[in-house]
Amino acid sequence: MAIGPLQIFLILMIIILLFGTKKLRNVGSDLGGAIKNFKKSVKDGGQDDSTEAEGTPPQIEENKGETMDAQFEEKKEEDSK
């Protein structure tokens, strides 16, 4: 018994109803950014030439316990100003 196009469509509709398009868009963009960074690090051999030449370790941005929705709302407020 194979999964047909109708079953895939129904599964996608249920996922959209459960999570909403906004949350799925954020997940998709986060996943795309992660894949892009992974490919870049593989291409560069895992070394960032700019930080190595300066002799300083790369700065990691901390997530201060905020959710992605809160960060999105903050960015939207800053952009509207």
Task: Give the tally of β-strands.
Answer: 0
Termini Cα gap: 55 Å
Helix/strand order: HHHH
Please state the overall shape, judged from the principal axes of the Cα atoms: flat
Strand content: under 5%
User: Helix/strand-derived class?
Assistant: mainly alpha
Query: In this structure, how is the largest beta sheet organized?
Result: none
Number of helices in the DSSP assignment: 4
Which stretches are low in confidence, meaning pLDDT under 50 for 5 or more residues running? Answer: none
What does this structure look like?
By secondary structure, the protein is mostly helical. The protein has four helices and no strands. The radius of gyration is 19 Å and the shape is flat. The mean pLDDT is 78.
Task: Put the structure in a nutshell.
The chain has helices at residues 5-19, 21-44, 49-54, 68-80. By secondary structure, the chain is mostly helical.
Descriptive keywords:
81 residues, mainly alpha
Write the layout of secondary structure elements.
Elements: H1 5-19, H2 21-44, H3 49-54, H4 68-80
